[in-house]
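Newbie here. four chains, one complex. Structure please?
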Amino acid sequence: MELRKPKLEDVAKLAGVSRTTVSRVLNNRGYIGDKTREKVYQAMETLDYHPNEIARSLFINKTNIIGLIFPTTNNPFYAQMIYHLENNFEALGYKVLLCNSGGRVDKERAYLDMLQRHQVDGIVAGAHNRGIEIYEKTKLPIVSIDRYLAPHVPVVSSDNYAGGILATSLLLDKGCQHIIHINGPIDLETPANLRRKAYEDIMKKNGLPYLTYEISETTIRDLFDQNPHVEGIFASDDLIATQVLTEARKRGYRVPEDLKVIGYDGADMTCILRPELTTIQQPIDAMAELSVQLLIDQIEQRTDQITLHNSLSVKLIEGQTT
Amino acid sequence: MELRKPKLEDVAKLAGVSRTTVSRVLNNRGYIGDKTREKVYQAMETLDYHPNEIARSLFINKTNIIGLIFPTTNNPFYAQMIYHLENNFEALGYKVLLCNSGGRVDKERAYLDMLQRHQVDGIVAGAHNRGIEIYEKTKLPIVSIDRYLAPHVPVVSSDNYAGGILATSLLLDKGCQHIIHINGPIDLETPANLRRKAYEDIMKKNGLPYLTYEISETTIRDLFDQNPHVEGIFASDDLIATQVLTEARKRGYRVPEDLKVIGYDGADMTCILRPELTTIQQPIDAMAELSVQLLIDQIEQRTDQITLHNSLSVKLIEGQTT
DNA sequence: TCCTATTTTGGAAACGATTCCATTTTAATA
DNA sequence: TATTAAAATGGAATCGTTTCCAAAATAGGA
């Protein structure tokens, strides 16, 4: 009863030709007689034949699959990045295998291993764990988003330092003196570290005290408890900035009169859900596009075209929180 | 110079055993002598051998890959759904191929075809296009999120009708008489239609006029232009609700005094970014988990365990917009 | 009509794993 | 020690394609 999926050989048999001929029709390669081609198409139609891409991949030694490793899709920045990566790859005939590392080193390692076994043609790595040595030794085409992986792996990022300067300067220009920065977890090798450096550099340059909190469950409450007179907060991403806003309103601060807040990322969803938030917007779409380009260049051996460090510029989006 | 990836045969040769033996070590199957196993592990180590999953898949006729078809990852609801789907599948040893249909029928068709060619073990379909006949004829295990696909395809959804009742009732209870509903695009076969039906039913039952707008570029402005005295708005998702809030504030409405707004979905990101929004929360995590369960049941032929219609209950999250 | 170049086709060997079956080696029991 | 069962190993076929090579058919020109 359980009838097998039709294979190329079944098509060949029904059309009365050889496997070779069917393969030629399928791939439009070499010489093919018109009536033969027609017969083959007919046979495919009647059998509802779908070529087995796995068998094909095995032979041609290419899968047209790209691995995407990110901490999570459940975050406006990554969600948008992944969306555009998928779109761009799809347009070029590549499929994407999605891996959520969840910020865990062991998961990232396991995924990396899995992707290699699955013979992916390349990887876009956007997770931020430290100390994964596989990146060093693999010969696989890789592009990294916002993290140094190995000497030969190109990195795509936005200009985090400039973004940090932009954000801090804005708060200073608006008259803030007492400015605090909130950073993501520092054990992750995130680009946020550059944003922080910019903040600290410019505060130093202006002779002002600087203070950086590392985000945790209680960070935001602690910050307000310990610094009731804070005038400006630069959060290293929009989610943190939003939580700051929420807490500030709960405590009766008027924003932007008493307190100014600026975030970072400026993903589409954030801009819709929090249009009033001032933020530094990363060019997510352009970053995705460039990453795809760089990966394809590696896959197709155009290694000469590849610049190792690619930094795209950010943009200030002024809302009503500054 | 360009040295080939080591294959099973290379390992066998180096270890001085047969391919069969190496395969046995690899899969922990059958009898294996201890010293032999050790030799094989050694050889794998020195060669940095990674088994070729493609070749394996071809033989065992299983890929352990699941196709995910959704309109986009760049939306809090889908982003969270995809995140949990991926996590649950990963825990069971499955990988996911991500497909963004972008709401286009032709893309969904193309993806479906691609997934079949790639021999995926199953599909979770969360896109909402009409008239895709492939779902009717394919023998592939499928689970649909929130859409009827074919008689034999199980559907996972939340109780949209109850959600619509809940939302509309709340507005009524809070004293609204003039309540308007905003729906997504009606040419998509979305569950929003049930939410709308609930809204219209209950308004009728209360002898009140009802009015549904279909979302477009200008819908929200039109709505306010044409109904300046609107007291309550029930939006079919949180993004629309947020845009309503933004426009309302721009026009000077006080929320919730002059106007009450309720959304739908209640995704984690939305709750962080818009904590004040009242919404109907779908049990996204549970929906994902159940979908995975239903798909695996099909893949492993436990067809008796499968209920065709699975509706999970929703929850009212009261914020400050009502 | 014959010869050569082009077009059209098919046979068989890959691709890198797994598994069936058979064979050899080792261990256990009488 | 002989006998038998269990443990350990290997050979060859297979999964569904593609491609190399050779052969057959057709067409074109002298």
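Moderator note: The two ends of chain B are 70 Å apart (CA to CA). Chain B touches chain A through 50 residues (CB under 8 Å). Thread marked as resolved.
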